[in-house]
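Q: Convert this sequence to structure tokens.
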Amino acid sequence: MPGIRNSGEQPLYEIVRAGILEQLRTGKWAAGEKIPTEPQLAEAFGVGIGTIRRAVEELVAERLLIRRAGRGTIVAKFADEHAFDQYFNFVDRDGNAVHVTARMLRFGKERATPALASVLNLERGARLASIQNLRLRGGAPLMLDHLWIPFDLFPGLSAETFAARRGSIYGFYQESFGISVVRVVEDLGGAVADEALALALDVPVGTPVLRIERTAYTFKDKPVEYRVRFVESSQCVYRNIRGLQD
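A:
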């Protein structure tokens, strides 16, 4: 890893942060692996320990790296509980975390419409996996996700491999395809349950539901998944916490 050059227009720690991200993007430091120590990173980048520490602390705050007592700093795995919690923003009416199980209802193949091609930055007509995934709480339907995933990014993806995954969907992407989700963009709105949605969620037709559109991105802002989630919100609420938590 060559030392960095700084024109003076960008803080050194930001340049170091970008360099560390590049190692994560290329898989040089894989999920679950320990990254080099701060002195080793300082030598590699040709900067001081303080600069390294600030860059690493930002990536820890972003949950791309995890500090483990006695183990050093490791690359986050999406099979870990902390990673699931980062992207599952639901609590019950008392503020307690909602725990769900998943059941795949449908796995199909389709071509990208102009709208899907635009959001996933693909050519129109690109091959997509189209998945309906039901989430249940205590055996009762709570959410229905409709996911669209590009086959070009996930070669070999099938109904069997998706249904047999262990843990979270993002953990599956990371472990099976080497794709880490590092950012999501969500838009919240409302909808009413049509006949198909009412059947899946076991609610009357016309029931108000929460509708959440999410685009998931990997490194370099590359979209890797688009989903629409419908939530039967009498059982839970959406909670988004931002900022420092002591």
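DSSP finds eight helices and ten strands in the chain.
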